[in-house]
Amino acid sequence: MKKKKSKKKIIIGAAAVLVVAGGVTVAGQRNSKETQIPQVPVVTAEMGDVEEIVDATGTVGSEEEKTYYSPVNAELKTVSFSQGDVIKKGTKLIEFNTEDLEKDNQKAELNLKSTKYDTKDTRNKSDKAEKKQKDAKKNVQELEKKIKDKKAYVASLKSQISAATAAAQREAAAQASAQAAAQAQAQQQEAQAKAQAEAKKQQEIQRKYQAALNTYKTETLPQYQQKLSELNSQYNQAQSTYNQADTAYQMAFATWQADPSDENIQTLNAAETSRTQAQIAMQQAKQAYEDYKQQTPQMPDLSDFTQNSSGSLEEFTDGTEDDSSEDDTASGDYAYSGGDSSAVTADTSALESALESASDELAELQSDLASEKAIAEADSTSLTKEEKEKLKVTDNLSELDAKSAKELVEEGKKGITAEFNGIVSKADIKQGAAVTQGMELFTIQNTDKASVDVTLSKYDYDTVKEGQSAEITLGDNTYQGTVTKMSHIAVQNEKGTPVISATVSINDPDDDIFLGVDAKVKIHAASAKNVVTLPVEVVNIGKDGSFCYVIEDGLVTKRDITTGISSEDYVEVIDGIKEGEEVISDLGDYTEGMEVQAVSEQTGEDADE
């Protein structure tokens, strides 16, 4: 089919008018038998294919762009591109100088090791103190049971001695005369007096010992533990102050590296002085804590209170039995004599020896019990839950600092590599320049995802759909494309006309693609195969729809038709005209109802012949 310029006639009304030609009316001509019937050109409706193409223009751009930022504070060692350069995926674009980053990493690792050692030492000491207190509580229970058993054993020995003595007394009483009985009574009274005096003495020793032990547990030891806890808190606080000062110094050092101004130098010097002072204070606090920890007060010992004037240990009692029945004679035996009666004595030396040993063991157990109770009941020097969490936080902070420094070194060594093929659309950096973390460096637009942004009129936007194919002309090159995006919001162009924007992606972009330039786009909007077609110039559009003119019974007749899609040259006729029918192609000065003859536009011959 020959392409013709699209031309549609728009007729609002088809009123019958008289056309005057050469001063003679057409009606007069038709009524005149001598006048020849006028001829009009016609075309024949044919079967064919119609494709609707929407023409548009737009600007070539990229569907993907990425702005790269500096991952580190460092100097740009190499910059291998300029704005406008075409770069390939995988090209290393920037290398950083990582000397300062590696120094920071080493410092962070050393700080982490120091923090780990301090934390481990503190936890070990806390665990030892906690274990010691737990063991003491367990020992208290065991010692209380042993003391209970030992007291029962002592009481049993005293009961046996008393029984033996009573038996001897009964035997002596039976043999002695009244005088011997009186003498025995006197001796018994004297022995009771001595026993009472000795019991009173032992009570006083126990009272002094218990008073001294109570003072140790309620005053001396708590005061020592309180001061030790205060020194430990001071040391922890000094250590935290040092960590904060060191962090401030690191931040000041990074700021000075990025901008070595006089103000930043002064800030750096002040931060370094604060860190040094904090370090000295921390060391002093630690030394004071360690020194005082070695000055643990000694618990009173019972032996300190049982020394008599000659330096020998006195016997003491736990008060479970009355010792007034015991004699203090040199042999430890009870002897009675009277008159001519022979002396009767009870041999209790073995029992008294066992009693003495048991009493010593009981005293030792009571001393151990007092010591273990003091430890078990004292304020714990182990770490609290909050202090353990604080140590964990300190460790985590140090680990994060070390990890961050290590990652920065790795990022610096890695540099920046192009992630896709593209063009550097923005860059204002130079080799040797100092950049800071997060600073914008350059922008790359992806040439593998090139597209054209076009605008569509209100007559075309409903025809164009996502997924339709297109041809894109860029200079001397033509590319195949696809409609990938349709906006659903109309905007006004510079003339105030509403338009819809669409994106046409270039299917196979190459190195000849230039971003930012204009391109022509032909969108294959719709097509119809093997349908009835008419040239676009014979189809008219009125207020009631499309129509054309045909010849029926030799007269010009208006025919309403239903049209489908249209190309630049042809229109699809859905209803109203059938294949082979003739349609007037140029009505000229004739009107509806006039008598005419058809002449083929292709041959110029009369259609009736």
Keyword list:
4-stranded antiparallel β-sheet, disordered N terminus, 609 residues, alpha+beta, disordered C terminus, elongated, 27% strand, 6 helices
In short:
This protein is α+β, with helices and mostly antiparallel strands. The chain has helices at residues 26-31, 99-175, 178-258, 262-293, 349-377, 385-414, and strands at 9-10, 20-21, 24-25, 39-44, 46-62, 65-69, 74-79, 86-87, 92-97, 334-338, 341-346, 416-417, 422-427, 434-435, 440-446, 450-456, 469-474, 477-486, 491-492, 498-506, 518-535, 540-542, 545-552, 555-566, 570-575, 582-584, 597-600.
Low-confidence runs? 1-34, 309-341, 603-609
Distance between the termini: 25 Å
Shape: elongated
The number of distinct helices, counting runs of at least 4 residues, comes to 6
Class of secondary structure makeup: alpha+beta
Describe how the helices and strands are arranged.
Blueprint: E1 9-10, E2 20-21, E3 24-25, H1 26-31, E4 39-44, E5 46-62, E6 65-69, E7 74-79, E8 86-87, E9 92-97, H2 99-175, H3 178-258, H4 262-293, E10 334-338, E11 341-346, H5 349-377, H6 385-414, E12 416-417, E13 422-427, E14 434-435, E15 440-446, E16 450-456, E17 469-474, E18 477-486, E19 491-492, E20 498-506, E21 518-535, E22 540-542, E23 545-552, E24 555-566, E25 570-575, E26 582-584, E27 597-600
Helix pairs in contact: 2-5, 2-6, 3-4
